[in-house]
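User: Predict the complex.
Assistant: Input components as received:
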Amino acid sequence: MLTFLLRRLLAAIPTLFGVALITFVLFNLVGGDPTYQMLGKHATAQQVAELRHEYGFDRPLPIQFVDYLKQIVTFDFGRSYATKQEISSMISNSLGPSMSLAIPAFIVTTLLGIVIALLVAYHRGRAVDRVGVVLCVIGMSLPSLAYILFGQYVLAYQMGWFPISGWDSEWSERWSYISMPLLIWVAVSLGHEVRFFRTAILEETGQDYVRTARAKGLPEKRVFFKHVLKNSMVPIVTNVVLEIPLLILGAFLLEGFFGIPGIGSMTIDAVNNSDLPVLKAMTTLTSFLMIFGNLMTDIVYTWVDPRVSLK
Amino acid sequence: MTSDGTTGNMATLAAATGSSGMAPVKEIKGRSLWADAVRRFKKDYFAVVCLGIIALYAAIAILASLGWIASPWDQVIGAPYAPPSLESLAHLFGTDIFGRSVFFKTLHGTRIAMSVGLVASLIAIPLGVSLGALAGYFGGWIDELIVWFYTTLSSIPNIMLLIAITFVLGKGTTSIYVALGVTSWIGLARVIRGEFIKHKNRDYVVAAASLGASHTSRIFKHILPNVSHFIIINLSMQFMGAIKSEVILSFLGLGVRGQPSWGVMIDDAKLELSRGVWWQLGGATLAMFFVVLAFNIVGDALRDALDPKIK
């Protein structure tokens, strides 16, 4: 197991390096020198030179790249252009609010998705299944922004069931602010989840072992909830684990709308303020998390499916 | 695909038995994979209707850009924020803050949506097909390099990559085209690579090689036509992804400016909703919903019709 882990980690190094290279090329080479943009039209040559020096833009590109690699390893991404705060502390401050929405939303969506998919797949080919699939496709086709805007308009403005937007550091108050974004998050993602889980389950129902189980006279419920369910867990768990690293981005549109001071809001602010270092740090970090997530998937895979060997 | 050969044999068989007087067998004719796929697609009436919807959107986009319909979209036609009415076609979806017709703006938004889908596909398909073909056909270090490149690119969360590219290239429509093009070829490249690995040692390719066919001829003339249906299957997903992403990027202020787009309309709507002005959001949502739904359904139908595995 340990050698397997080590080998997987080593195999991830070229990808990690690649991500660093691509973000560097994008932000430092293609993006160019942002100092003029930051200082405005009336900057003096000296101001520009000072700022260029402060952010290291006057150094040769290979050295800039090594500096950037150092930043990644030490988790010190410098300061934001807009707020002048340390980016690493901005990120760690935003993590809490992001997670307090993302984790409950992720758990509710996944559980609800699996339960509905099981129900629909059990009644495959019948009316429940048809209606379920149609609802899923309709749900997937509605733009996510429409869910957010109409959700806020109807539930908060018109019905007054939830506060329009806001945040509280106390958990007792926080729930009232989280519940509406949570509801919308579930609504946005449920269609896609159910459809994916349903396909994963149905792929198993055509297998030979299912026929064997039926042939030896097992009741349909037992075939479905014991044999099929266990086997379809392999693709389901893989997919669910892959979604975890993306949670850090939160549903970043949701965070922006409902005033949740999380990672997503931070990214949107960075876009609005042309805050390149924050965007660069966020791109790198989320990518590294994705790679880590892929690694986790491989490990979980060997754990759910004993046929996959640790090689 | 060898199905061509087998159906050909069946045709000769049918001709032979047909001459001996068995009338119904005569109807079996040699059909190409494509004709077969078209026949199967046509059976799915709902998908044909959806294809019609897509054609309608394309026609609206072309007519709007020629100025034949919904023109001029930026003319004041009534009071600001007039609610929808049946008074005239222009008033169907009400008016915006300047008193311009929301219906005309929605129709014009089709132009951006369809062109984003088209241009992104025109960039992504050649890129995905050629890189996938090179990697799969040649293997070795070429394969490793290309696979490393797309694994790296796909570990950067899509939305972060899109934001980063549109950001460094400068805001605007061209950046969106490029960003969507260079982020969306990976799925296709993966599939094409896999297919080329499968096909390159098949008998027909080996035969072509022994007759002196060059690498170029083997790749483009022999293997590519046999895997090209994956491009079609990919196309509808590609279009749909591009339309959805354009709306989010324009909403974030990174995209289209100075001309109507569904994303910009939704962005305007977030301030209008608190005053009860829902029609701009409604128009954009409705327009987007139908085209995304149509692409979803056509995509599924294409997969069913073209993928020989599901036959």
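Chain A touches chain B through 46 residues (CB under 8 Å).
Let me know if you want any component modeled separately.
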